[in-house]
Specification:
Helix content: over 70%
Shape: globular
Number of helices: 10
Order of helices and strands: HHHHHHHHHH
Oligomer: single chain
Number of strands: 0
Mean pLDDT: 92
Structural class: mainly alpha
Distance between the termini: 32 Å
């Protein structure tokens, strides 16, 4: 279930220039560092190969993007998070919550947005533009400014993920801190562009 959800949500979140690319660089770059520190050198190198590939792509995907990721690449990047997390856990005793923290910008936004749409009896399988990062763009932020917000958030989450990986007695606090920071980001976006003030825009764009 986690693998199916991860595959789809990464695709859902690939909606503004550079956002999916930088998310992948964060997850696999920092995740690779954690793997390396725990002795998973081959797995870390594989993660960094993905980072190098995405970084090369980001040169042209940076706002204003000249090329776009598409379903195949975004689905692959989302899919691969789960094997890395499971192998890290079962073979190298790395908590899966490290990957959860690294991935939190995407998982929280996608999950909360889906739940809210279901509560409003919207068809969950229909295209929309109601994710937090999309509403931030609708509020007047350029693609580049949205990306810089995501970069800043991912820097905070990366630091918390490393703490969770290296200091087990701080793990619970790190995870809780990551959730709080990400929820505050979501609430901040809500103050700028409420989801259901944006709903009419989303319906117009779909039509």
């Amino acid at each position: 279930l986690a693998m199916v959800w991860s595959t789809n949500l990464f695709n859902f979140m690939d909606g503004t220039d550079g956002i999916a690319s930088f998310e992948a660089i964060t997850i696999y770059g920092v995740g690779g560092a954690v793997l390396w520190l725990h002795g998973a050198h081959q797995l870390a190198l594989l993660a960094w190969i993905i980072v190098a590939s995405v970084a090369g792509f980001l040169v042209w995907n940076w706002p204003k993007a000249k090329i776009f990721m598409g379903d195949v690449a975004s689905s692959f990047l989302g899919f691969m998070v789960i094997p890395f997390a499971l192998i890290g856990y079962y073979v190298y005793d790395i908590s899966v919550f490290v990957w959860f923290v690294l991935y939190l910008m995407f998982t929280l936004d996608a999950t909360l947005t889906l739940i809210r749409r279901l509560r409003h009896r919207e068809k969950f399988y229909e295209a929309h533009k109601l994710h937090a990062y999309q509403r931030l763009h609708q509020s007047g932020y350029s693609h580049q400014r949205v990306l810089f917000v995501i970069i800043g958030m991912n820097c905070i989450l990366s630091a918390l993920a490393v703490v969770a990986a290296q200091y087990t007695h701080w793990r619970t606090m790190s995870i809780a801190g990551a959730v709080v920071v990400t929820v505050l980001y979501y609430v901040w976006v809500e103050t700028k562009k409420p989801m259901y003030a944006a709903a009419s825009i989303g319906r117009e764009q779909r039509s």
